User: What shape does this take?
Amino acid sequence: MTSPQPRYVFEQVQIGKGLRPLAQHGFIVIDDQGVLSLLGTERQPIDSSPLARIAASKIRFTGGKSVSLTLGNGNKYNVSPGWGARGAFVLPGDTGQVRTAAEALIKLIAASGGKA
Assistant: This one.
């Protein structure tokens, strides 16, 4: 049995739960089966959920660079993809003309049936 291959990878992601930081240089990985995984700085698993069961919205006071995620299990996280670098994210597919990694993440969730 092989693990699903990453389809999209967002690097240098700040991940927090409320005001508590969980990872300064974490990762968001979306695999080819449509599961989003939050990984810590050392690539340790934090949480995961199918994209179709995720609700996502921009956090206004960050200028749209951070996203509030509510996973299918009810856990809520604040994520800032590319915040620790110069917007480092790898998108092998076409997500249209997106300005930020946060916008790309929201578009991927919406395209997979999630609430965005």
